[in-house]
Description:
The chain is mainly α. It contains 12 helices and no strands.
Amino acid sequence: MSNSLNEIYREIKPQLKIRLNQFRSLYRKGNQQEIFQELCFCLLTPQSKAKSCWEAVLILRDSGLVHRGTHCEIAQVLRTKTRFHNQKALNLVLARDLVYNELEGDLRKLLNSTSRIEKLREQLVRTFRGMGYKEASHFIRNVGRSFDLAILDRHILKNLVKHKIIREIPKSINSMKYAEIENKMKRWSEKIDIPLAELDLLLWYLETGEIFK
C-alpha cells in the first residue's frame, strides 16, 4: 500500500468509523420506511451518480410517491436524476409491491432469513428486479446487515486496477467474476490491514472526495 493511501486512511479513519456506525444504527434502530428507502436508492444506482440517486429518493420520500406513486409519477421524478428512468421506476414499483404484499412491509424478514451473507445476496438478486450483485451488496452494507461484501462499482474497480489488484476493468461481470474480484479485494484488505467496508469507503473517497453511502 502506498504511503499516500496510508496517510489518507489515517486522516479519515474516524469519519469512516462514523459512517459505518450510522449504517449499523439503521439496522438496529431504523424504521421500515428508512430501510425501504435504502433499497430504492440501491436499485437506482446502476450507471447513475449516487448523489443524484439519493436526491431522487428524498424527493420521492418527501412527496409520498415512494409509497403511493404510480409508475409514471415516479418515472417523472427519476427523469432528471438517473439513467433508464422508466425501467427503474418500474423496478421501484415492483419492489414496493413485493415488500408490502409479501413481506408485510418488513424488509428485516428477508434480511434475517439466513445467517449466510452470500446466500442473502443471492436471495436479494433473485427477489428484486434490477438488482445485481453490486446493488445487493450495497444494500446489505447500507442497512448495516453486514460489512463483509464488496461493492464493485466503477470507482472501486478503477482503484483495484490502479493498485494492481486486478489487471483491467471487466467489460461485464457475472456472478463468478464478481466473486473472483471480491475475493481479491478481501485478500488485499487483509494484507493492508484495512477492514473491507472501510477500504470500500476509502477508495470511493479517493475518487469522489467525499464519504457518502
